[in-house]
Write a structure and sequence with these properties.
One of its GO terms (cellular component) is cytoplasm. It catalyses: L-seryl-[protein] + ATP = O-phospho-L-seryl-[protein] + ADP + H(+); L-threonyl-[protein] + ATP = O-phospho-L-threonyl-[protein] + ADP + H(+). Belongs to the protein kinase superfamily. CAMK Ser/Thr protein kinase family. PIM subfamily. It is found in: Host cytoplasm. It is an enzyme of class 2 (transferase). The radius of gyration is 20 Å and the shape is globular. A hairpin with a 3-residue loop joins strand 6 and strand 7. It has 10 helices and 15 strands. It folds into 2 domains: about 110 residues, Phosphorylase Kinase, domain 1 (2-Layer Sandwich); about 210 residues, Transferase(Phosphotransferase), domain 1 (Orthogonal Bundle). It has a 6-stranded antiparallel β-sheet. A 3-stranded antiparallel β-sheet has the order 8-10-11. By secondary structure, the protein is α+β, with helices and mostly antiparallel strands.
Amino acid sequence: ASLSSPRLPLPCRAGPCPRPAPGKAQQGLKEQYRLGSLLGRGGFGSVFAATRLSDGAPVAIKRVPRNRVRHWGELPDGTSAPLEIVLLAKVSTGFPGVVQLLEWLELPNYIVMVLERPERCQDLQHFIRARRFLPEEEARGLFRQVLEAVRHCTSCGVLHRDIKPENILVDLATGQAKLIDFGCGTYLQDTVYTHFAGTRSYSPPEWNDFGWYHGEAATIWSLGILLHQMVCGEHPFRRGWNLSWGQLSLPQRLSQECKDLIRWCLSVNSLDRPTLEDLFCDPWGESHRHTLMQGPGKFQLHTCLGNQKQRNPRAFCAACVAAQGSWDGNTQPLCWS
């Protein structure tokens, strides 16, 4: 992948890209970006803050050892690339709720990705921890954005497989959420998956019991865990709660609609879980408030009443669509401010 067009997302590139020699590619990277602090490190690579020298734009540079790349695919121009890059190219269409891949290159020992980075952002895990838990109104807006991001990925034929707070970035200036880290992702399929990738504590019961899962049902399970973490401040299954014991206990302060939605998503039988479109129609999210942050620690609530009568999942105002998303679950993310 060439370094000649750093502002152009991969899907917009036409025709094969001339591949520079490794030494020239690495030198070109140093000439076009100033590397900053380490943002996160994990089993699959490291992510660094960086600045694009041509215009001062903040970016993130993810570096993955070549020997850790297990799956490869093909870009539209025929270039062979790690599957994570192929998936990012599919979803990097300018949609605001998914991190945009700006460019990538292949070095002798590493795969390097240059990704967009909001100037002041924080992963959702740290965002929640700073507040212990999120009020329902705030959680509702962020959760809606994540749903929009998942729907976008679905429309692009991509299954993320690692939805969790660490993989959702919140832009502290705008309230925009972004889905990040497609390192565990794969192509979407209607048939069952018999290989698990992602975070074990988010794996659905059918995988643990039978060794298979459907993409949408497993995604809904992880979304139920995510919503629980937002409004309760902790993972629902980290305190010894066994799935066979029965109904999940939830705080009395939560609305009945919120409790019902969490329990619906966390149905042990995958056939009992809602579909993604069901979540857009659910009463808890249908009459919702979208939270916009203005300035450090300040919030402005925008109220939007959806089409409650017809339960149209797309009947919400433009201000409520202006977000979605997540940073890299294969790393241990830090605050990006």
